[in-house]
Amino acid sequence: MTRFERQDRTPRSRPARGRGQGTTAQAPSGNRGGGAARGKAPARRRATPPQGEFALPETVTPALPGVEAFADLDMPAALLKTLAAQGVTEPFPIQGATLPNSLAGRDILGRGRTGSGKTLAFGLALLARTAGRRSEPRAPLAMVLVPTRELAQQVTDALTPYATAVNLRMATVVGGMSITKQSATLRRGAEVLVATPGRLKDLIERGDCRLDEVAITVLDEADQMADMGFMPQVVALLKQVEADGQRMLFSATLDKNIDRLVKMFLTDPVVHSVDPSAGAVTTMEHHVLHVLDETDKKAVATKIAAREGRVIMFVDTKRAADRFAKRLLASGVRAAALHGGRSQPQRNRTLDQFKNGQVTALVATNVAARGIHVDDLDLVVNVDPPTDHKDYLHRGGRTARAGESGSVVTLVLPEEKREMTRLMQDAGIAPRTTRVTSSDEELSRITGAREPSGVAIVIEVPQPTPPKQRTRSGGSGPAGSGGGTVRSGSRGRGRRGTGSGTGAGGASGGGAGRSGAARSGGEPRGTGRSGAAARGRRAA
After folding, report:
1. Quick one: angle between helices 197-205 and 231-238, nearest 10?
2. DSSP string computed for 190-234
3. Dist CA 20 CA 261 (whole Å)
4. So what's the architecture of 62-274 in CATH?
5. So where are the chain's domains?
């Protein structure tokens, strides 16, 4: 039995809200029988899904009509005022179509490429429906699940002004950051939780969070969560929220993993679907540049990186990202690598450098770049072509965001032509194909490529911030200042003194005298120039 034949089977009904019933937003049926109505739907009404995707469900309950202005929506005045203050004057298509229904509590299934405006599409409804409520410690009322730390931060940044306007507290919990601080935030209480699945699972197991009060759940970039192996965790988390709560699922593509989530957790959803390729046609140009060999490919990529303005350049591996960034710096291009081998604070600082213009060419891997949002970025280059059409769409989603224009350029070697043709067909995109060399004027016309200066550039690589140490009674200060620090319960060496006096923890004598080993409780042993023993507190 094929996947599409399975779509015509009457799904198993579930109690409560009937999770698992298939629905569609096209030509609503008057039959409210749920699964039975779906099984009887004529075949001609079922649109042929893009390759690799499942057929969109049918809507049993008619969807509310869309709106063309935020003022037409039943939202708190504080949110409308904040929209105006943020310069958001009219809704994007996905917002205008889904907000009337999500504000009414309907489940939503939204398909649209990255940058289509879906963050406010689910965020405004979530905040409007949660406004006026107060959560208990460790028990959020609304939850947004995302695949990556970068996307979590992007969602948090986008929604914070609106949450503040309606007096809602937000908590962001992601891996790679201090779990202690995140736990403390949840214990203080937060109405809205933005989380990656792995870290949220850890916090729940620690007893720092529970989801039984979550009435509104959003899955953003659901296909990426599936691709990254988070599906078992996502399913387990969704089973912990309120059984009859509202669910909103947004995804750039809809494959069999997303089909499973729709059947398990969405009830009669309102569907808003924008074909990812169709959504990109009007705002994005797609170019495939055929290059001669690996050597010319590097030369072409280097000239593109030297263009005026910012560019994100995708490569396959962390090692390739580091190597190419080093090559660009040596050629005079302000470049930096962004990949999963860097700590989260390092990645954040690299992104800040890219946003403020200190770095103009960001060399990134797929995972590291997911969730990146940079205003006015008009070029993305696939130095190494993606292996999957979904990766192509997500990479391209870094540009042409929110209705702006942009270009995606892919460099293709002779042996990669056939695979690239198949990938573009799967993505539903007809790119402009050009054969180029590093010296062609056509390369400059398409990408703005130019000769790099050749003067090597040094950009400070962001270093991890050292952890703050607990101070003892002597206070924190440089060696020999009468201060010093040592972590409670740990062993350490005292610092070499440069002045007289002793201090707690890292107590030091004077001159070249080195204190003894600092034991638990910060009791260094030894004597300084003054001859006084340094034990824990300042010597008398």
Report:
1. 50
2. -SEEEE-HHHHHHHHHTTS---TT--EEEESSHHHHHHTT-HHHH
3. 9
4. 3-Layer(aba) Sandwich (3.40)
5. 62-274, 280-447, 468-540
Task: Find where tokens 């995707």 sit.
Answer: 53
d(CA 430, CA 416): 17
SS3 call for 268: coil
Contacts with 222 (C-beta within 8 Å, 6 or more apart), sequence order: 234, 249, 250, 251, 258, 261
280-447: CATH architecture:
3-Layer(aba) Sandwich (3.40)
Judge if 62-274 and 280-447 fold alike in CATH terms: yes
Alpha helical stretches, state H, 271-416: 276-281, 294-305, 318-331, 344-356, 366-369, 389-396
List the chain pLDDT tens, one digit each, 540 residues.
433 333 333 333 333 444 444 433 433 333 333 333 333 333 333 334 444 555 666 778 888 999 999 999 999 999 999 999 998 888 988 899 999 999 999 999 988 666 678 899 999 999 999 999 999 999 999 999 999 888 899 899 999 999 999 999 999 999 988 999 999 999 999 999 999 999 999 999 999 999 999 999 999 988 888 888 899 999 999 999 999 999 999 987 777 778 888 989 999 999 887 654 444 444 678 999 999 999 999 999 999 999 998 899 999 999 999 999 999 999 999 999 998 888 878 888 898 898 888 999 999 988 766 667 777 788 999 999 988 887 887 787 766 555 567 889 999 999 999 999 999 888 888 899 999 999 899 999 999 999 999 999 888 665 555 555 544 444 444 443 444 443 444 444 444 444 444 434 433 444 444 433 434 344 444 444 444 343 343 333
- H-state helical runs in 381-460: 389-396, 417-427, 441-447
- Amino acid letter for position 499: G
**Cβ contact 32:60 at 8 Å:** yes
Phi, psi for residue 451 in degrees, rounded to 5: -70, 130
